[in-house]
Amino acid sequence: xxxxxxxxxxxxxxxxxxxxxxxxxxxxxxxxxxxxxxxxxxxxxxxxxxxxxxxxxxxxxxxxxxxxxxxxxxxxxxxxxxxxxxxxxxxxxxxxxxxxxxxxxxxxxxxxxxxxxxxxxxxxxxxxxxxxxxxxxxxxxxxxxxxxxxxxxxxxxxxxxxxxxxxxxxxxxxxxxxxxxxxxxxxxxxxxxxxxxxxxxxxxxxxxxxxxxxxxxxxxxxxxxxxxxxxxxxxxxxxxxxxxxxxxxxxxxxxxxxxxxxxxxxxxxxxxxxxxxxx
Length: 279
Description:
By secondary structure, the chain is of the alpha/beta class. It is built from 10 helices and 11 strands. The strands form 2 sheets. It has a 7-stranded parallel beta sheet with strand order 7-6-5-10-8-11-9, sandwiched between helices. A 4-stranded mixed beta sheet has the order 1-4-2-3, with helices on both faces. Helix 5 crosses helix 6 and helix 5 packs parallel to helix 10.
């Protein structure tokens, strides 16, 4: 029989410590699951955070099924003053973390709701300004663009069914309430969507660094659709061929590129200023 060396004893202790920690974690997780409410139902999503849930509660188009809130959040939001669609379920922060994950900044409140239904493209004829995203995949960027779109009075945000984030708690949190204030329309085929918009009187302007003229002098017409592509790839070739015009954002400084959400904010400001001048 071989005698154990100090090295063997060291690894044996590490294995025992690992098994002990793993066992303790299993007990904790089991206890948490025992007190957590049931997960989100099929076809519904969780929304969370102060601005997100407050805007959702005030949105008559929202179909809300559950409201989970901590005592502190209930007091801070003044939920008694709102006409609530369902009875609040007072819970603990750790229950929300169990449902959403530890990374979600829920701020003590969460809703179970159905996704919003939006208009069809043909019904956008009365809007002067909309924004279109050509396969922008980052929900943080899309949420930030939603906020800018609402700030500059854009009536709709159009994304593609593939390679674009769907409505979710993360997207809604990034939009900080703007998701409730703008129609988020999802199309299967962006080229056909651009055709439909042209038929309803929109001039579509794609942002591209190789655009023949600056965006602020490229505008024409009274109905504007801004089209932005993903960072790095930019607009797809088919999209470039379909838009009314390609235009660029001139940047006189040493940095010649911007985050897509920043570029969207500048483009929306320019479009809003142009349309206001026509009034």
